[in-house]
Amino acid sequence: MSLLRYLHLDVFAATTGGGNHLGVVIGAEAWDTAAMQRFARWTALVETTFLLPPTDPRASYRVRIFTPHQEIPFAGHPSIGSAHAVLECGLATPHDGLLWQQCGAGVLPIRVEGSGAERELLLCSPGERVLRTGHDAHPLLPAALGRIACGALPPALVDGGRRWWLAEVADEASLRAWQPDHAAILALAKASDSMGLCAFARSTQDRAQLVVRAFPAGVGIVEDPASGAANGLIAAYIAHAEPHGPLARGYRVSQGREIGHDAQLMVHIDGSVIWVGGRSHTVIDGTLDWSAGERR
User: Exposed e or buried b for every residue in 241-256, given b needs 16+ CB within 10 A?
Assistant: First the structure.
């Protein structure tokens, strides 16, 4: 079989190796769903994506996103990383500063700002809805939060391509030191058909105005080093609850230090439109020798 191009990316990294891994396969039009799933299981990455020609005339390209266990319609860091791969490989050209990504959640715009190593890509998520708020929003929520001191905003269940429980923590130090009950978060995720719990705290540091920790127990992940979709939901919740607050126009996010990463995400809020993204770096650009239809 012919060799395919394969990129291994570091997405949302503030420092080398600080972001979220992503594998991107280019040229796998002949692969069926089972073959893509088998390769994604082999990479064992949080997500692996496959770049394909679009079937919607509005789109610049099409992406299919796989965890090691299943295909998912949408996720933040795979979308940003895939757009980076599209530009690096010359598969599409932005028009009016935008790429249009076709995925399971529809055709979504990705804003391209800058070029080269300074280039930032920002995703406009599929739209957000606050479904429930309050400490009593679900009977399993108190156990998932444990004894952590909460902040100004009440916990909320928010939907937008992916569904997350969000909780503001009283201060950055408490959030960074928190040892959550992952079994309790898993129980909440399963009972509410959600990804899990994403906690955030306001920061006084110059480098970032918000610190985020994400626990997507619902998809078998203990803690995520950089969460594009979840950060989009946080931004939508803050914009909804505090439309005139200090974070209402946007901010920088620090995520992942507690698990040895160092991610930085950018959030821009244009009225009701939320853009989340950052920089990506190609760590490996090579060829993929993989038989899609045979077991070796």
Answer: beeeeebbebbbbbbb
Q: What is the pLDDT of residues 31-80, one digit of tens each?
A: 999 999 999 999 999 999 999 999 999 999 999 999 999 999 999 999 99
The DSSP code for 221 is -
> Using CA atoms, how far apart are residues 184 and 196, in angstroms rounded to an integer?
10
Residue length, the chain? 296
Helix (H) or strand (E) holding 274: strand 273-278
| Contact by Cβ (8 Å): 134, 201 | no
List helix spans (H) across 105-150.
141-145
Domains contained in the chain, CATH given? 4-119+279-288 (3.10.310.10), 129-277 (3.10.310.10)
Q: Is 167 helix (H, G, I), strand (E, B) or coil?
A: strand
Token pair recorded at residue 256 = 């992942």
- HSE at residue 103, side-chain half, CA atoms within 13 A, is 30
Contact 234, 242 (CB under 8 A): no
User: Would you say 18 and 262 are in contact if contact means Cβ atoms under 8 Å apart?
Assistant: yes
- Which of 281, 289, 280 minimizes the C-alpha distance to 25? 289
Contact 137, 153 (CB under 8 A): no
Closest by CA position to 122, among listed 276, 281, 279, 280: 276
Please tell me the distance from the alpha carbon of residue 194 to that of residue 164, in angstroms, as a whole number. 5
Which two three-digit tokens encode residue 28? 């796998």
